[in-house]
Amino acid sequence: MPPERLTITGEQLRALRRRLALTQVEMATAIGIRAESLCRAERGHSRLSPLATRALVQRFPDAAPPDTPSPGSTSSADR
């Protein structure tokens, strides 16, 4: 699934950030958004924009669900 169509819940976002041992400020900075926006997304009050979601998946490939190829990888259908 392309990052533009990837939906990450607030719980998934918070779990990923905690697993990576990052603060909200650190993760937000890494994906180019404000910490307040990340906080709102984690609490379920808003969603990450498609651009922020793409940055998240590129910067942190673990953010993609298991069936989503990470950036730069090829699927078995491409071989």
Can you give the mean pLDDT? 82
Order of SSEs: HHHH
Shape: globular
Helix content: 40-55%
Cα radius of gyration in angstroms: 13 Å
Count of runs of 4 or more consecutive helical residues: 4
Count of folded domains: 1
Oligomer: single chain
Find the count of extended strands (DSSP E, 2+ residues): 0
CATH superfamily: lambda repressor-like DNA-binding domains
| CATH architectural group | Orthogonal Bundle
Largest sheet properties: none
CATH topology: 434 Repressor (Amino-terminal Domain)
Low-confidence stretches: 73-79
Helix/strand structural class: mainly alpha
Strand content: under 5%
Per CATH, the class reads Mainly Alpha
Query: How many angstroms separate the termini?
Result: 18 Å
Topology readout:
Layout: H1 10-19, H2 24-31, H3 35-42, H4 50-59
Helix pairs in contact: 2-3
Short summary:
With 79 residues, this protein is an all-alpha fold. The chain has helices at residues 10-19, 24-31, 35-42, 50-59.
Supply database-style keywords.
79 residues; mainly alpha; 434 Repressor (Amino-terminal Domain); 4 helices; 46% helix; disordered C terminus
How would you explain this protein's 3D organization?
The protein has a single domain, classed as lambda repressor-like DNA-binding domains (434 Repressor (Amino-terminal Domain)). Helices cover 46% and strands 0% of the residues. The chain is built from four helices and no strands. Helix 2 packs across helix 3. The longest helix has 10 residues. The C terminus is likely disordered.
